[in-house]
Specification:
The structure is a homodimer of 207-residue chains. The first copy, chain A, is built from 6 helices and 9 strands. With 207 residues, chain A is of the alpha/beta class. In chain A, helix 2 links the parallel strand 2 and strand 3. At the A-B interface, strand 7 and strand 9 of A face strand 7 and strand 9 of B.
């Protein structure tokens, strides 16, 4: 694998952008060598775009609202092909990427999910975990494949669930773990430490 | 809830009985106040029975081999009703308990499972975890309901998966966590620290 240091990263967002902020912070403190070349949101006026602007990172809105899925996906793919990133990070991006995008960037798209996959894929993972009554949950950084949160896992971090946890309190603690895991995953990838074998990853230096 | 201290425990086994040994050790060191009144195996000549004998704990074999499921289940239920335990522990017991037994001992049956449920229920959970490529797995102590490893969770412990883990190496590390979790769950139950609310448990003192 070629040396990926200083990868060009595109971050896809849909909302608050706290995971985007974690990457921005890591870039500014040189915790990672890679740089975000573009933030793309499928929604206008979200806080994630303010974070990009404040950090002088280019951003664009490719709105999914009022468009057919097909039209939206083609616009997104065209933009991504023009940008030609080394890594695409889904950071709270609430749309399912179509296979056209996934196949165009094989093993170059990662997602952060607020559960220990394969438990609780999909939406509201924290509430799913509370409803099931697990005592340990966590977060997962994984490569994106065509399934819903099913791709090869790069990193996982655990978090204990407390008696009195609400969706909010648990989500807040998980967010901290998500931020750390996402930055660590980017570090591992830019340093060529992630080896993909079938559907599993081996890490050259285990965290 | 009545004070359960010094519960009468029946342990169901099918094989090596290392989880049984953990309970025997906890009983002998007075880590738990409860006592095992009977070990029941569905197989003859398994190491678990030697462990019971060595510890002077009564044991019986109710063989499932060569019998209809119905006949076996009736024999098991009759034996359990005669013993009238406060707690039934499935410790590597490889049969599915029928609803007749589960309904007769509501919230009095616990199981130890070598994964962080709801991930990887059923057989060979460690291999399932390795095949999926998770970075964190663990073990779960839960009340037994009519599903397969679906009952309310009492305790979970996590364990990291390493690059070079085999089914054997991971299982060995998990076993240590299982032993600790199982003993801790019995402690919590005998001290009335486990409160069941719908399908969830609250622990009066969180570990």
């Amino acid at each position: 694998m070629a040396n990926n240091a200083k990868m060009k990263i595109v971050v896809l967002v849909s909302g608050r952008g706290t995971n985007l902020q974690a990457i921005i912070d890591a870039q500014q403190t040189k915790t990672i060598a890679s740089r975000i070349i573009m933030v793309i949101s499928n929604k206008e006026n979200v806080a994630a775009l303010d974070r990009a602007e404040k950090a002088n990172i280019p951003f664009q809105v490719i709105t999914s609202k009022g468009k057919s899925k097909d039209v939206y996906n083609k616009e997104l793919l065209k933009s991504l092909q023009t940008l030609n990133p080394d890594l695409i990070v889904l950071a709270g991006y609430m749309k399912i990427l179509p296979s056209s995008v996934i196949n165009c960037f094989p093993n170059k798209i990662i997602n952060i999910h607020p559960s220990l996959l394969p438990s609780f894929p999909g939406l509201k993972a924290q509430q799913q975990a509370l409803d099931f009554g697990v005592k340990i949950t966590g977060c997962t950084v994984h490569f994106v494949d065509e399934g819903c949160d099913t791709g090869p896992i790069i990193l996982q971090e655990y978090e204990k669930v407390h008696n009195n946890d609400s969706q909010k309190s648990l989500s807040l603690r998980l967010l901290k773990k998500e931020h750390a895991a996402l930055v660590q995953a980017i570090q591992l990838i830019e340093n060529n430490k992630v080896i993909l074998q079938d559907r599993k990853t081996l890490l050259r230096e285990e965290p």
